[in-house]
Amino acid sequence: MATICCKPKRTSNKVQNKESTYRLTNLSNDGDWSRAIHHDLNIKRRTCTTFIPKDKTKFDRSRSRSDVQCCCNRLHREHSWSVYEDPDIKWDAKLHTTSAYNNAYGYTPNSHANYIRCDMETDPKILTRLMIEVWKVQPPRLIMCIIGGAKYFKLNERLEREFMKGIIQAALKADGWIVTTGFKTGVVQLVGEAIHDHKVTNPRSKITAIGCSKWGATKNRESLVSSKPTSKESGNPSTTNGSKTEKKSEQELDPNHTHFLLLDDGTYYKYDTGDYRSRFVLDAAL
């Protein structure tokens, strides 16, 4: 499934005023995002604060806590906070998660795409500012939001190739943003392959492909966490030592995307981002 959000055209004066505003609020002249993220934009992560056993029928206080799983799907040893509650308490995301100092942003290890872990309570306007003011992405005149699995993409190989080529050409002509789930699977993987094929023959072309992905479902996310403690609240680096079943609930980030907004609700192994992606697209289109 592919949905396209067209950004309305502005008059030349309005465009000029908008661009002037971005220059006046430049947050990162030295290439270091730290001040922008921690102070100017104040982008946090979200973490579970209260360890409540997920499977209460198997809860045993004599059992090693490190092997017990919380309702947020972390094992006890993966918890950033050392709070332990009675197993009879019902876990509630609103009550048992909190925002915390951001410990994951920079460039992905292999593809060098810009990425940031961000609390899902973050106002989408903040992430739009991050894209344009800090990451220096051209404001879009067209936004294409593409989601869906490969099994719903019923085109033969020739039509599929032409469809993907059309998406790339539209993005190039309109300084467009391609917004996806960011994971290397389904139709998003096909989009990534189309971007790669275009870059092979047009290495200087600039295509903005943004993955609005779920932090807790990102494979090898521990490699994206800073190795140095950034705050007393940062806790231990996240790890992914879950079961084989949980490993299946993780996906690789597509290496052909240029930016990743890794949405964090404090849980692991879940893909749901609610309407956040749509809200981000609508805000960026204003």
UniProtKB/TrEMBL annotation:
InterPro entries: TRPM, TRPM_SLOG
Region (Disordered) location: 221-256
GO cellular component, one term: plasma membrane
Compositional bias (Basic and acidic residues): 244-256
Domain TRPM SLOG: 113-272
Domain of life: Eukaryota
Gene Ontology MF: a single term: ligand-gated calcium channel activity
Name this polypeptide is given: TRPM SLOG domain-containing protein
Source species taxonomy: Eukaryota, Metazoa, Spiralia, Gnathifera, Rotifera
